[in-house]
Design goal:
Elements: H1 2-30, H2 36-57, H3 69-92, H4 95-102, H5 105-116, H6 123-140, H7 153-171, H8 178-202, H9 214-217, H10 225-251, H11 254-257, H12 262-276, H13 282-314
């Protein structure tokens, strides 16, 4: 049964990652025409409407106070701020670099699954995790001051936030389905985005170079209908992608399913090359390969263990 659940989880991850490959590409493309709050407020508002409609259709009861209030707050805050700075890094760095660094997430998920969900982690897994983080090290290149950017730390924080959120999602799955968790997340994100943007409007913050940080401090525009329609479409597909990922981690093992997300890294490299002319340097390419190898090594090891466990169970 678990093997079947993992396969279902992988299908939903592939769907979610395909959606997000074009979502991230579109965000990077329109970043100069909008600001991050217009993106976040719109995607959160649309996300609330879409998930609420789905919950009403399913006759799912929405509690004012969640079953797991503390875990819900932690999950929603991490996802909001994690992807907020992810969007900022997406505007500052190449698509392939941001995506590659984000894929430290499966290694974080493996560590957290062992700590929170009591899934076993042995020496081989530890070595694989080390291999993955060596890949991250090669991409960030802290030893080359001319190429290192603090913006590279943003996708790593997003990876950690995402990993924590998905493990919490798995832990709370019995009482909260994917649509409810997405509804909670978008509701908190909408509230925080409106509050943060209001603060920016009220306080001048003259000490900040607003031209350099135009993606944050630029004004929200309503006169470009093409951008508004693009953001609305992005928001709908982003909601579907996020719901798919949450559901994937609820039905399947986080350790087994996580590496399936590497389909996004491959698509990001392709999109970065064809749309922006980004070509990873040799060290970054080596880092990307190590991250992919590490992730898939985790997957094949877990798949083999599940197969052996199935055989042993069948022989009883």
């Amino acid at each position: 049964m678990r093997a079947n659940n993992n396969q279902i989880g992988m299908i939903f991850i592939v769907i979610g990652m395909l959606i997000y490959s074009f979502h991230d590409l579109a965000v990077k493309t329109i970043a100069n025409e909008t600001n991050i709050f217009q993106l976040f407020i719109t995607r959160a508002f649309v996300g609330v409407l879409v998930t609420l409609t789905c919950l009403k259709y399913l006759n799912y009861k929405i509690l004012v106070i969640p079953v797991y209030p503390k875990l819900t707050v932690i999950r929603c805050l991490l996802m909001h701020f994690g992807f907020f700075i992810f969007f900022i890094s997406l505007e500052k760095l190449s698509l392939s670099t941001v995506t590659a660094l984000f894929f430290a997430a499966p290694f974080f998920i493996t560590i957290l699954s062992a700590l929170v969900l009591s899934e076993r982690i042995g020496l081989i897994r530890v070595l694989i995790i080390v291999l993955g983080f060596i890949g991250v090290f090669l991409i960030v290149k802290p030893f080359k001051e001319s190429e290192f950017s603090f913006f590279m730390l943003a996708p790593l924080f997003t990876a950690f936030s995402y990993a924590v959120a998905m493990v919490i999602s798995k832990y709370t799955k019995e009482n909260e389905n994917a649509f409810l968790q997405a509804f909670q997340q978008y509701s908190v994100s909408l509230l925080l985005s409106v509050i943060t943007y209001t603060i920016i409007l009220v306080f001048p913050l003259d000490m900040i170079d607003k031209e350099e940080w135009r993606f944050i401090f630029g004004s929200i525009k309503f006169d470009n209908y093409n951008i508004l329609i693009s953001i609305a479409i992005l928001s709908i597909f982003g909601t579907l992608g996020m719901t798919s990922l949450i559901h994937a981690y609820q039905v399947g093992s986080p350790i087994t399913n996580g590496p399936t997300e590497y389909v996004l890294l491959i698509l990001a490299i392709i999109n970065g090359y064809f749309f922006f002319g980004n070509i990873p340097d040799y060290l970054s390419l080596a880092g990307i390969i190590l991250i992919i190898l590490g992730g898939w090594a985790l997957f094949f090891r877990e798949h083999k263990r599940n197969k052996m466990a199935g055989k042993n169970f069948g022989s009883l």
